[in-house]
């Protein structure tokens, strides 16, 4: 007699990890302690060189809900798509290996989704912890809660915490999953694509402790993240207006200087502004990988007060050459400025 396949769980908790041994045990324990127990816990090891995989396999040996997937180094986007491909549950709860779930997270999110079947994506409020697990100095973020408020904040606002969302598995699959070209902004691109397919909400309850560290993508890759987020928004605007997405199928996203040809006039100026808005208080970035965007933004925006302050910030932080160049560019832009249209 053929064996009967096990019943699919209600939720798949999906975690991609790489060299997360310092925080992984606490993260796993916070999932296994959930008040809602009908879940499978997929832990995909993305080529770790530390004890992460062995730790995860130790938990799997003690709890049948835990399943470890071993993979060669492939990056977060490929790992996330593999997790969604292997998820058995209709709902997938994303969770990062350095965060902590509050005990009622899955219960509260599932209760909301059962009561509001028109919603296919739900997040929640979060608190910030530091690398030691203590309270972080990062100012709290209050996210929009209902669908209309989230849609109104899609361009710039704090929309969803990726590690705290629960999403209908088939929505993500049908939308094409996470797109590799949008590395470091893959979640934002996905939320923009799902916003037209389902209703979205954030629970007002704080259900996740989000760990802040200097090694995070948002710290190490903030220029690329802002660049790709700008393209995601411009592509979203085109999809909404025309049904066409010129970035669909791209393996990598184009440099800022070429965006007007792909996404329309003013796109490059918009992307430069969004990058500078993101790194305005990070002089190391302004003097480094954001420097081309800063020069272009000065030429396009002219001698704006925030740009004068950015130039002075460069001078005071030890970047005398860049600060002097920025000041000269601001003076020159004030003399020769021509207005540049930026997409509204």
CATH hierarchy, class of the largest domain: Alpha Beta
In CATH, the architecture of the largest domain is Alpha-Beta Complex
Helix content: 40-55%
Our Rg estimate from Cα atoms comes to 22 Å
For the largest beta-sheet, the strand count, sense and barrel status come to: 8 strands, mixed
- Overall SS class: alpha/beta
- Percent of residues in beta strands: 15-25%
CATH-defined fold name of the largest domain: Spore Coat Polysaccharide Biosynthesis Protein SpsA, Chain A
**Which strands sit side by side, in order, in the main sheet?**
3-2-1-4-7-6-8-5
CATH H-level homologous superfamily name of the largest domain: Spore Coat Polysaccharide Biosynthesis Protein SpsA, Chain A
> Order of SSEs, N→C?
EHEHEHEEHEHEHHEHHHHHHHH
What is the 3D shape?
Answer: globular
Keyword list:
single chain; 344 residues; alpha/beta; Spore Coat Polysaccharide Biosynthesis Protein SpsA, Chain A; eight-stranded mixed β-sheet; 15 helices; globular
